[in-house]
Write a structure and sequence with these properties.
Elements lengths: L2 E5 L3 E2 L5 E8 L8 E6 L6 E6 L6 E3 L7 E6 L4 E6 L8 E7 L10 E5 L2
Parallel strand pairs: 2-10
Antiparallel strand pairs: 1-3, 3-8, 4-5, 4-9, 5-6, 7-8, 9-10
């Protein structure tokens, strides 16, 4: 049973930084491509970043390229999202999941960027 627990969200000012963490269990973490998603109020959930099983391959949505960095620690079954130069449009609930999986979502972690 896939279990995902996101943490690290907070309220920050524009230009600030946050590091999100996602602890995974119940499946073969090291053999799955992982991803971060986010959902802003009134919007659909969108893909933010993807990381390959070994961590050497990453991909980002255009709006976060150069500001966000996804990483993983297979020994700790954890995936991270380092977010720098945060903007108001980054506000939302952030979720991690196995890339391409449409269920088994965790509770997410709220990120609010506001002055």
């Amino acid at each position: 049973q896939v279990q995902l627990v996101e943490s690290g969200g907070a309220s920050v000012q524009p230009g600030g930084s946050l590091r999100l963490s996602c602890a995974a269990s119940g499946f073969g973490f090291s053999t799955n491509t992982m991803a971060w998603y986010r959902q802003a109020p009134g919007n659909q959930r969108e893909l933010v970043a993807v990381i390959s099983t070994g961590g050497s391959g990453t991909n980002y949505r255009d709006s976060v390229k150069g500001r966000f960095t996804i990483s993983r620690d297979n020994g700790k079954n954890t995936v991270y999202l380092q977010m720098n130069s945060l903007k108001a449009e980054d506000t939302g609930v952030y979720y991690c999941n196995i890339y391409g999986l449409s269920d088994s979502w965790g509770q997410g972690t709220q990120v609010t960027v506001s002055s």
